[in-house]
Amino acid sequence: MLLTAPAKLNLCLFLGPAREDGLHEIRSLFEPISLADEIEVTHAERDTVECPGIEGDDLTGAALAALREKGWAAPPLRVRVEKRIPIAAGLGGGSADAAAVLRLAEGEVDGLARLARGLGADILSQLRPAFALVSGSGEVVEPLPLPAEHAFVLLPEPEGLSTGEVYTEADRLGLARDPDELEEIAVHLRETASAGPSPLDYGELLVNDLQPAAISLRPEIEASLQALHEAGAARALISGSGPTSFGLFAGRDEAETAAEKLGERAIVCTPVAP
Asked: What CA–CA distances, in Å, run from 78 to 41, 63, 95, 256?
């Protein structure tokens, strides 16, 4: 069996204060894109997970272990992840892989959403990848209508960036918004995106509050953002906690033209429907 685990972009990310659990409130528009990891699942003598390039704790393995703890009785599996999504890039690759594994048990294990929440903040939103307004620390997901046509060019950086370090830097810089302002923004995002326009039509809402913190840690991000602007992007910002930059374009043709100017590092992506 071959599974697809699409990356996600944060079209915007508004940062609120840290909660008692240490996580930050956010309000963000998540969109799954055509850049995706491929996951091969085969029968085996015992459960094994192979994810080349991942060191330390692996969300994919944690997801499979969580299913077994819930009593999932499927035969032992070998799960091999072919990484296409850059690691620690702000694109949710690890969360996408874990969510894809959880989907294997859909209809067979109750409480997949609870499992997803327990494994990581972004996993629930990728359990059923769709355009959505995401709140809380990522655990509140409101699906939205598909937006009108648009496309992206991604510029990954050579080295990933720790999400925790970016949030710590954001706290140091005092980037969090007041909770009332955060909720006003959420209302505006919901009302605007619910009508189904292209994100190009509400560019003023495409803001990432973590961007100054990511640039503080990786100044070279600014050059990528500038390159995207110069290539014709209607809007350019980082996704999630970075360091990947993306540019927004009217359609795939425009994105491919820009990518030719930007060189081999550029990746053209389009939204994917549920």
From this structure: 6, 13, 19, 37
